[in-house]
Amino acid sequence: MISPEIIKKIQAIKIRTRQVMNGTLIGGHVTKRKGSGFEFDQIRAYSYGDDIRFMDWSSSARSGKLLVKQYLDEKNRTIILCLDISASTLFAGTEDLVSNVLQQVSAVLAFVCQYEQDNVGLILFSDTVEKFIPPSRGNKHIMYIVETIFAYRSTSKKTDMNVLFRYLLESYTKEAAIVLVSDFITDDFALSLKHLVCRREVVAIRCLDALERNIPQVGYVWAKDPESEEMMLLDGSVELQDKLNLRFEEQNNLFKQSKVDYIDIVTDDSFIQTLILFFKQRMILP
């Protein structure tokens, strides 16, 4: 069961997403399946059975043989949202927990998929795949996904993206675009990510707390790792900020080398329009 407050939040996200979508239409998705869609692909020789409406009479006259225009077919896509629900997301240096922002980002994307009539599925992961909702479409399905996003409570604290990537390669083998929604506070996933990219289209949405971008220099502080529950003494100086910046830089390089499009969402920013524009650009550009 979800609370009235969460229901109210879901409705607000849905309304705001639709407002942005109405002002910034993403448009139809295009795939390399040949057909009679609206995006021109090439001119080729006429084959028996081709629709004469697509005859290119000018090119045919110049070449002395029958030629037709071939178009790419529009096709609805299948999207798998992979949401990180590990304990590292239960952090807030400002007003919102990172986990709350991750949930909101995933909900926005689910509603965008509904708007575009795409099939959308959901994977909740930590150091295991905790829940999988197979892709489908329709209002009832989308609301089930969104309510699960906000209502589910993780059974594990740690993060292991290698487990997620193996699942996507070995257990879910159908064609789909993968959207990773995470804080990416985890190590040693570079090789398995590259394997996944060879078989799937992958997009990364990295959610950061605003404090991670500008850590106050307060000297030494005790901190508890939410995943291992280990206590540690941190040097809250420029050295800690440098370490975080190095992690961001290494991940950025990994995404670029792996040809993974990515975007950063910061907890204290209004992100819906930024997120939708990001997907608009990557869906319509070659």
How would you concisely characterize the structure shown here?
With 286 residues, this protein is an alpha/beta fold.
Please, could you describe this protein's structure?
Helices cover 40% and strands 26% of the residues. With 286 residues, it is an alpha/beta fold. The strands form three sheets. A six-stranded mixed beta sheet has the order 6-5-4-7-8-11, sandwiched between helices. Helix 1 packs across helix 3, helix 3 runs antiparallel to helix 4 and helix 5 runs parallel beside helix 6. The radius of gyration is 23 Å and the shape is elongated. The two termini are 43 Å apart. About 3% of the residues have low confidence.
Question: And the CATH topology of the largest domain?
Answer: Rossmann fold
Q: Which bin fits the share of residues in helices?
A: 40-55%
Q: Treating each run of at least 4 consecutive H or I residues as one helix, how many helices? A: 9
**Major sheet:** 6 strands, mixed
Secondary structure topology:
Layout: H1 4-23, E1 30-35, E2 39-45, H2 57-63, E3 67-74, E4 78-84, H3 98-115, E5 119-125, E6 129-136, H4 139-151, H5 161-170, E7 177-182, H6 190-199, E8 201-208, H7 210-213, E9 219-224, E10 231-236, H8 238-257, E11 261-266, H9 272-284
Parallel strand pairs: 4-5, 4-7, 7-8, 8-11
Antiparallel strand pairs: 1-3, 2-3, 5-6, 9-10
